[in-house]
Amino acid sequence: MIRISNTVVGILNLLSLLVGLAAIGYSLYIHLDIGGNATDCQRVIKFPLLIGGGAIFIVSLLGLFGSFCGKNAALYVYLFLMFVLIIGLVAFTVFVLLVTNRNVGKKVSEKGIKEYKIGDFSHWLQKYVLNDKKWNDIKSCLIDAHVCRGFVLQQNVSAIYNKLSITQSGCCKPPVYCGFTSKNATYWIVPKTGPAVEDSDCTTWSNNQKELCFDCKSCKGEVLVNIRQQWRNLAIINSCVLIFVTLVYIIGCFATRNNDYSSHKYKRYRGYP
C-alpha cells in the first residue's frame, strides 16, 4: 500500500501538471495570439489563468519530483502547500455559504416575470459585484456574449417573458412596471405621458443595442441572482475538490513515509547508523 502511494501521487500530479500547462498556454494564447482582438471577458481571465496555472504547475512538479525521485524535501514542501490549499478551500467554502445565505430574491411583479431587487442580496456581494470597475467588466461580457439576441418577441408578451432567462429578463427589456410598449424584442416605446412610475430604471432604459438596460438596477439584480447560484454550485464543487485534495494529501503522507522507510533501509544496507 505504501509503495503504491508514490505511484498514485505521481499519476495525480502528472494530470494536474497537464492542467496547469493548459491554463498557462491559453493565457499566453490570449496575450500573444489574440492580442488586441481579445474581448473584455478574455482579458479578465488572462492573468488569473496564468497565476493559477503557474501555481498548479509548480505544486504538481514538486509532487512528481518527490514521489518518483524519492526526494522527501520536495514532498514536505508539496504537503505543506497542499495543507494550505485544504485550509483555503475550507475557508472559501464557508465564506461562499455565508455571503449567499439569503432568502431567494423576491419578485417585484405578480406576473411571474423574473425581476429581483438588489436589496435581496448580502451587502458584501453587492459591494463586490456592483462597484463601477467590476460592473463595467460584467457589462462588457454581457455585450460580448450577445445575451439579448436569440429570442423573438411573440404576440403574447407574457409568453415570451416566461421563456426569457434571468439575465435577459433584467437586462434586455425595461421593467414591466415602467409601462413601456414593445415594438419588437429589444425596441420599446415610452408612453407619451412618460413612464407609469418614477423609477431610475425606466429612464435608464435605452433602445441602443449596446446600452439597453445593462445599467439598470433590474439587470444588476439578475446578475446577482446568477452569481449567487453559481457561487452555491461552486461551494458544492469545492466540497468535492476538498475531499479529493484531502485524499491526495493523505496518500502524499504515505509516500513521504515510504521515502523515509526506503532511505532508512538504504542506510542500513550501506552500514550507516
UniProtKB/TrEMBL annotation:
GO biological process, one term: auxin-activated signaling pathway
Cellular compartment(s): Membrane
Top-level division of the source organism's lineage: Eukaryota
UniProt-recorded name of the protein: Tetraspanin family protein
Hydrolase recorded as keyword: no
Keyword tags: Membrane, Transmembrane, Transmembrane helix
Keyword Membrane among record annotations: yes
Chain segments annotated as transmembrane: 12-32, 44-68, 74-99, 234-257
Main location: membrane
A GO cellular component annotation in the UniProt record: membrane
Membrane topology reported for the UniProt record: Multi-pass membrane protein
Assigned protein family: Belongs to the tetraspanin (TM4SF) family.
